[in-house]
Design brief:
The first copy, chain A, is of the alpha+beta class and about 300 residues long. Helix content of chain A is about 45%, strand content about 10%. Chain A is globular and about 55 Å long.
Chain lengths: ~300, ~300, ~300, ~300
């Protein structure tokens, strides 16, 4: 497989596409992003990295940060985290509050907003937001082997200014005793983690810790058992209410963000980051999903046979 | 890996377990099954088959039949089937009707009861129930390379006698125009397909068509692309509202039935059938799920790394 | 108050109205009704009756029949009926099945379809559909003092032919043990009771048993306590998901049907029938509701002061 | 009717009752109230007032305050208020957030918490919380003809300290643009209005403005049309998810609070306040509801005939 050529073809096809989805408009800072951009980057198990398109342009990782916070929370709390958050697809939109009422304050999984707030709250226990965000950035920088990964403060402020739905979720969780730190601190930390910026190149490198590559020289950040479990959650819950469709079309675990990025793992083989700001009806990058469908098919990377 | 020894250990552990879950009691014929039974059988890509426990005892495959009807429906209708049924996890119980109302008669996926009724209705178009069931049995017998696979008429009658919930679902679908054949025929066919009986040995062999084994001498029943997609649906939706948990713990696509059977696919590697009648809170075999967790871990078969 | 003049003014205004709502189209026989019709009739406590417009034209009473079946069921079972059906507004559409799942087969009230099916099932116990319908007709004819009230068989057949949603509800109730007779008999009886035809003049007379008029010479069909309770249910649940709005605007208990009729009771004062086939967004007669708003206001009949 | 004797009998029966319901425990200040208390007071249209039991003991009126805020909001905004809040029973618990999501931020009615927050927010427009609470107290004091009606600051603080669910509701409303003032101000005002204290004697007098008594010498605070409409809303929505049952058993419009008080209006005849801290399963005063059932029946005050 000539991966360089494949990425170039995918990138060219994405550039030529006219139906690019709609840029998220509920966060003003995101609404201003140029929708014509597309980037993709792939890290292979052998250490090589290939990229195409706008792979060096930073974008807001948004919900992709939930993977890193989950890894940290599991590292700190272990399986006791699962008393506070479930592991099932939700069947509702990413910011829905309906399920929380029916299931008495236990979010369905760590990747919907309510679940991610619980995860961030769990990491925050006994720390300040600055310490927690510092730890998160250190984890990501180590994983990406790149110190130049930062939080965009303008985006963080924009998230906060438009954060009523998340504030509602956090207070609803609190009413069931499933927020332990002060609400404002958890929300502030959450808004900042969503505002982390990375390029496709950085994001693909940061995902290598989930590749579980045999004989890799990478530092091992979490155990193989935990890698498999995080990948499983990304497969069943990583694309919000479009996770089934993503598994059907792509066949790989991934996590999307409303900034238009998707981090996808081909277990034992590759860590892939794709980015295009326009979203499909599920709230996932439209061209990013399409690109992953082609890449997984042509590379033969689907986990499903 | 000494798979024979591993299966014996798993079987012995299952026999020693005292908390075996509860046998499904809403179908009288199933409620009479002895809960102390446990069987497991594995077909490898190289053609070898290994079994342990009650692997030669026939049981009611129930919802596992939904895999075969889906394969037939896709063969006949292709992707137009997806206009009538979705591909997302439901977030509700397998026999829930709530989602159908909110989503105007389109079931979330082909593995919840409502979706499976649509799939059976789709196969039935222009055929009689006898022809349709004949075709389904032929498919399964060919896949299993075994003519001795039959429908248990007593179970089929028991399903029908207690089939009010499914009859409600079928009529609800009809009210949205999503049942095309006569309701009684679709329900009759569905009750009979659920009443197909197989042993673990037969079921494991019948699942080989989803293995996508490279260089296999098996007859190819469906395309590789379709295999991957059915496996993807089994991963995200195959264990009802416990699919996320199964992916998390086992890491393989599978389909469970309330008879206590589970068919699990390790893509490119193995087709596995496990059976124990007692169910966990999700309605999936309790010991079967636990056995699969051990087998996938010790065999290193998780698709997630 | 010059009631004759008032009814003529209301009728004239209704005739002049151009926005008449939409005739129910899911039952073919109802879809053919001329939407330009409007009739109204009022029976006062003193025995006088006044009418205007198409008050002598028969129409399908549809869900208004639920009042008569409820009165019969309470007469036969007394308060034990309330173990099988609730007394609260549903918050869902009249034919919704969602609430039934959440509340395990107990319909919220006797006026949504699911609740009315339970009520009809309760009357049917130990009788044939013909006997039950005969009893219902006798009750209505006695109440209206008019033998010329019949079932329209064509409408009954049309209801049955398009009755998938009601069949789904009945089977769903059965799955929770809340249907005691054979489903087909209960549904057949229900479809026929909905197909009873009356004119506004007949309907207004048939409602006098709920007036509880002091010193009336009318035969007493049910006790005062039961009258008050049925009126209360009509106030809180009689206009489906528009009951709150009807109470707010009209201030009187009433029961609507998708045939465009509404029976309204001014306790101690009047029984009023209004009919116009076009429905508003709640499924209640648009002009009928507006006419009742004017009549209640000008007559000073609101129960709310 | 000897109303003095009737109230004494009702009060004696209430004192003798052993099953008194459960005092609300989610607001610590309310959880400390002695559940053995019971008071009742009745103001007749002729100006006479009769009381029995603990009718001179102040209690927290809680949600009964929603009547006064609604009257003020309608006075200020008129019918444009109904663009922001509906008029239908909710079918959900008083503090449910589910309906808000399904209906995109428009609360079903002004008496569930979400609706009451919108009403308070509407009054607050352009005023400070202190001014708004001052206006509300003036309205109540004028209605009750009693200056000695105050806010219990300890209760207000207790509401705030345990107000996560209401804070979630307010933020959820904000996310749909249905909160116009600063959230903290609306919540602060709401927590204080719930903490208003009155005795049964004061509360019964304060409700006289909804009696619409003919020829009364009372100052008219709102129009007859508005009185009827508020009474209608109390009938269909005033007892949360037990409104249908209250209408069925009592037959009068009323508004309950979790402090155990209920204000009930017998249109044209009486304003009644009853109080007993123990609640039934709907969250309404258990003995208060039972007392009202007896009073309405023996006085013949049901509006339903």
């Amino acid at each position: 497989m000539d991966i360089e050529n494949l990425l170039e073809r995918i990138s060219a096809a994405a550039r030529a596409e006219t139906d690019r989805g709609a840029v998220a408009d509920y966060i003003p800072e995101l609404a201003r992003i140029d929708p014509s951009q597309f980037g993709i980057s792939v890290c292979l198990a052998n250490g090589a990295q290939y990229s195409a398109g706008d792979a060096a342009t930073p974008f807001s990782i948004q919900s992709i940060s939930k993977i890193f916070s989950l890894a940290l929370a599991l590292g700190r709390l272990g399986d006791s985290l699962w008393h506070r958050v479930g592991r099932e697809p939700s069947g509702y939109a990413f910011d829905s509050i309906v399920q929380l009422e029916y299931e008495k304050g236990i979010p369905r999984n760590p990747f919907i907003n309510a679940g991610a707030l619980v995860v961030t709250d769990a990491i925050l226990a006994g720390s300040t937001p600055a310490e927690t965000l510092g730890e998160m950035l250190r984890f990501i920088r180590t994983a990406a082997d790149d110190e130049d990964i930062r939080i965009n403060e303008r985006v963080a402020r924009s998230e906060k200014a438009t954060g009523a739905r998340n504030t509602a979720l956090a207070n609803y969780l609190l009413s069931y005793g499933n927020m332990h730190s002060a609400i404002e601190l958890t929300l502030g930390t959450y808004f900042h983690q969503c505002a982390i910026e990375m390029t496709c190149e950085q994001l693909a490198r940061s995902g290598r810790f989930l590749m579980n590559a045999p004989g890799s020289s990478l530092p091992r950040l979490i155990s193989s058992a935990r890698i498999r479990r995080i990948n499983a959650l990304m497969m069943t819950c990583g694309q919000y209410n479009g996770s089934g469709d993503f598994a059907f079309r792509v066949g790989l675990p991934g996590k999307s963000g409303v900034g238009g990025g998707i981090l996808v793992i081909a277990p034992n083989r590759a860590s892939i980051a794709v980015w295009s700001p326009g979203l499909n009806s599920y709230g996932n990058s439209k061209l990013g999903t399409e690109a992953m469908e082609v890449l997984a098919r042509e590379a033969g990377w689907s986990v499903f046979g």
